[in-house]
Amino acid sequence: MRKSKPTAIDLFCGAGGLTTGLKKAGFKVLAGFELDNVAAETYKSNHKGTRIFISDISRLNPAEVMAELKLEKGQLDLLAGCPPCQGFSTHKTRNKSSSVEDERNNLIFSVLEFIRTLEPKTIMIENVPGLAKDPRIEEFKLEIGNLGYKINENTIQVLDAADFGVPQRRKRMILQASRFGYIPPPSPVKERKTVKQAIGELPSPGMSGDALHDLPFVRSEKVNEIIKNVPKDGGSRAQLPLELWLPCHVKRPGSYRDVYGRMAWNDVSPTITGGCTNPSKGRFIHPVQDRAITLREAALLQTFPPGYKFSLKKGKDFTALMIGNALPPDLIYAHAKKYKEHLNTVIAGDKECLKS
């Protein structure tokens, strides 16, 4: 069994959800890469021992990065990342094609350049389900297969984060690859974590001393009246009298059914998105209090630790976007544990070969 921690690099690190999950599983994250300054500030404030590169990775020379981090080819244990997914998102693919022409889609090939240069032992790519159907992922798989990485038939799995200890429904694609064999997927949890377990013990916002929980949101009188009348614990706007419906909902009663809906205590939450504190963006009303969930509640539903710091420098909407765009740490943790077991097995096998 290895004594030192396995090493990892987090490409497209954002606020640090992937890094948090990797560290929880026992990885040492050497570096994160992020284009936005405020997201990078958030990352750095929570991961002080990790190097942060504030740059578009397509403009970086992987060989220079490898030299800066004092890495030898083949030494890195895990290269992980989630390329920006807006180009593959549901809103961008309503015409039934798997993706649209968005320059961010091609960042998967910038990841490929890092793989060619660093030759990490293992790879983890996480993204929205739309990437699993895109021709680029087939090309990516072919290329890393040619580099010697093992990819089994189930390597691209579309999973629900709720099955791995995250108290929200969130469909994600995970690609696993290794130069030394197949990495087994984690087993689903026996019982899903609920909204109540995640945020039920928090005090009412306003006097908690936590800026992310206490930050006030100003709503119109009409919106406050809607929120107040949505039935508690899982109620829907469809249960409101018609005089409380907004004109856009009257015109299109069947569209966006979850907006102005309440979460249910004993269920998982809906997907936490960049609009997670806005009831007009989804089922983001607190189960029993007459308000939308707070930034801290959103972060907890994403499984960030209770004291995780998020910068408010660009305003509350950008902070909500950072939280909603993050990878749920506990989803990554479940997979990273399997990676660590796999890497330990590889090292144990190498030691046996040296003895014989």
Q: Can you summarize this structure?
A:
33% of the residues lie in helices and 11% in strands. The protein has helices at 17-24, 37-46, 62-68, 107-118, 135-146, 195-199, 211-214, 221-229, 247-251, 295-301, 316-325, 329-355; strands at 7-11, 28-34, 51-54, 78-81, 122-127, 156-160, 171-178.
Molecular structure report:
It is a single chain. The protein has 356 residues and is of the alpha/beta class. The chain has two domains: 7-191 and 327-355, Rossmann fold, CATH 3.40.50.150; 195-325, DNA Methylase, subunit A, domain 2 (DNA Methylase, Chain A, domain 2). Helices cover 33% and strands 11% of the residues. The protein is built from twelve helices and seven strands. It has helices at residues 17-24, 37-46, 62-68, 107-118, 135-146, 195-199, 211-214, 221-229, 247-251, 295-301, 316-325, 329-355; strands at residues 7-11, 28-34, 51-54, 78-81, 122-127, 156-160, 171-178. A seven-stranded mixed sheet has the order 3-2-1-4-5-7-6, sandwiched between helices. β1, α1 and β2 (28-34) form a beta-alpha-beta unit. α1 crosses α12 (329-355) and α4 packs parallel to α5 (135-146). Residues 87-102 have low confidence and may be disordered.
Shape, please? Answer: elongated
Largest beta sheet, briefly?
7 strands, mixed
- Secondary-structure element pattern, one letter each: EHEHEHEHEHEEHHHHHHH
Number of domains: 2
Regarding quaternary structure, what we see is single chain
The CATH topology of the largest domain is given as: Rossmann fold
In percent terms, what proportion of residues is strand?
A: 5-15%
Give the CA-CA distance, first to last residue: 18 Å
Indicate the percent of residues in helices.
25-40%
User: Any idea what the CATH superfamily of the largest domain is called?
Assistant: Vaccinia Virus protein VP39
Number of helices: 12
Q: Unreliable segments (pLDDT under 50, ≥5 consecutive)?
A: 87-102
Radius of gyration: 21 Å
Mean of all residue-level pLDDT scores: 89
Structural class: alpha/beta
- CATH level 1 class label of the largest domain: Alpha Beta
